[in-house]
Structure formats: structure tokens, C-alpha cells
Backbone:
């Protein structure tokens, strides 16, 4: 046991060597005794993993200016916390696109524009992609809209959303 040194009114305890923790995330464990044998039972410390949610959607975009249909529904009585959105938009070479995510909290909508980056132009098509690490919330629906710069050509859109559900 360490001895305390008195310095006036302040007591100073000599430093004690502490074990070095190699990982900043340690999973707690419980000792479970079964038939006289000790076994460690793992307990998940990551509650986000226990309520994880992810989904994807894809659509064929017919000739038009705007395309919806990339829709995800949040289970009733839950709030979806969106942490990652990744998308791919494939349109004819020379064409551009815009991607917007719509969410709702109560009666208040949120419209978030996501930045698309041109990944390449193989075989006469332009491939636009995005990966956004963000924090957004929705109680009912998450919807994505693709806006294009011409209404005469067709294309493809793919969106994947990852996050977790919480109970308010």
C-alpha cells in the first residue's frame, strides 16, 4: 500500500505503476462458473452494433430530369441515426448528376446535398460516386433524389445507408 506524504493541507500520493492498456476499447467480461469451471462470458460493449441498421436500394433512371424511388423506411417508434452514405450514379459520358438526401424529424424536413465525384468514364459512361461520413436523423423516411442535367438519357443509381436505430 502506498504511503501518503503530508505537504501542508495537500496530501500527495506517490505515483504507482499502472498496467499499459494496448487497446482503447476493451470489452467487459463476466466470470461465469459452470460445474466448478470458470469461463469468461463476453458482453458486447458497443450498443450501436446491437442496434445496427443498414440498407441499400438501386433504380434504373428513365429519361427524366429528377428521379426518386431510393427510399428507406424507419421502423415505427424508432429514430434512425445515419452515419454513412455511399452512392454510385452511372449516366452517359458528358452528363452530370446531383444527389440529395431527405430526412424528417417530426414535422421538420432536412434536405442534404451530397457531393458526387467523377470516378471515371469507361465505355461511354460517366461514373459518379460519393461516400459521406455524417450524422443525420430521421423518424419516418430517408429518401434520395437524383437530379440530372438533361431529360433525354437513361442511367443507373445505387445508394447504401448505414447507421443505427434508437428508441426516443
Residues:
Amino acid at each position: 500500500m502506498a504511503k501518503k506524504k503530508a505537504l501542508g493541507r495537500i496530501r500527495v500520493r506517490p505515483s504507482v505503476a499502472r498496467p499499459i492498456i494496448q487497446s482503447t476499447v476493451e470489452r467487459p467480461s463476466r466470470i461465469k462458473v459452470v460445474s466448478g469451471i470458470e469461463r469468461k462470458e463476453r458482453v458486447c460493449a458497443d450498443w450501436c452494433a446491437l442496434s445496427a441498421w443498414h440498407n441499400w436500394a438501386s433504380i434504373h433512371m428513365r429519361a427524366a430530369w429528377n428521379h426518386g424511388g431510393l427510399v428507406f423506411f424507419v421502423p415505427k417508434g424508432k429514430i434512425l441515426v445515419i452515419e454513412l452514405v455511399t452512392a454510385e450514379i452511372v449516366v452517359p459520358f458528358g452528363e452530370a448528376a446531383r444527389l440529395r438526401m431527405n430526412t424528417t424529424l417530426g414535422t421538420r424536413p432536412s434536405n442534404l446535398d451530397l457531393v458526387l465525384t467523377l470516378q471515371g468514364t469507361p465505355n461511354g459512361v460517366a461514373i459518379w460516386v460519393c461516400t459521406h461520413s455524417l450524422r443525420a436523423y430521421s423518424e419516418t423516411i430517408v429518401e434520395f433524389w437524383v437530379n440530372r442535367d438533361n431529360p433525354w438519357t437513361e442511367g443507373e443509381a445505387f445508394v447504401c445507408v448505414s447507421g443505427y436505430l434508437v428508441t426516443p
